[in-house]
Design goal:
14 strands; 2 domains; eight-stranded mixed sheet; Carbamate kinase; alpha/beta
Amino acid sequence: MITNDTSISPLDRVQVLTEALPYLQRFAGKTIVIKYGGAAMVEERLRVQVIKDIVFLATVGIKPVVVHGGGPEINSWLARLNIPVQFIDGLRVTDAETMEVVEMVLAGKVNKSIVQLINQEGGSAVGLCGRDGSIVEARRYNTSADQPDIGFVGDIHSINPKLLRSLLKDGHIPVLSSVASDETGQAYNINADTMAGELAAALDAEKLILLTDTAGILKDRQDPLSLIRRMDIYRARHLIETGTVGGGMIPKVQCCVRALAQGVRAAHIVDGRQLHALLLEIFTDEGIGSMLIASENSCPI
């Protein structure tokens, strides 16, 4: 990992590149889907570094695809417009008025801001949402009979990766907001983790990486030092069943499990608050987060 720290000698810089060589060789030409959100998207210092790391991946021959949310920005605009913000079981209640704001903010303001940042750093980003090229067809999120209606919250019905494959082949970095429509054209707000996982599967990605505001999957949710660095999908399911994985981490782990079950080689839950989190997770043996694999018989670097 290269930094601008002038205290690092030229020899040390070359040594870093040499140590990264096996990873550069292994992942050259491979697709990595990155869910971008949390503090890494809000804090200026982290935002700039993540963008640079994404451009670095593309520069060394890896094919990154970025999927982003934008909850804080949505909340800010809803407040400006005096539209109530409500969540039920972690899902945003999305009536027609709220859906208009969600699409405006995610597919417009947030998406184009990320695209511009990537392009300023020397990448070639293309901003999209699930509607574009019919990449994602949505369906209404299926709530149970005893739950209140949460409006235009969607799930994934199908993925058409043709446009994304074309962009990746031509050296572009697709940046997708988590908005899609159903067969009638109705727009839906989709969980960005869910969209990232399904896109990773459809693109036959090498890795799915979820940038979060936690260290990863913990044995003890109160102890960051209890990080579980590696597990297969069977252990991941067991951790959910026993309550070790709870709260907002459940849908993230479930998203990883679904992606792995559909052929993604590895899924990572990584603390995006750490500088160079992406590069540390991809280009070092130990990584910094939790890596999930299909089974212990599969051994990706």
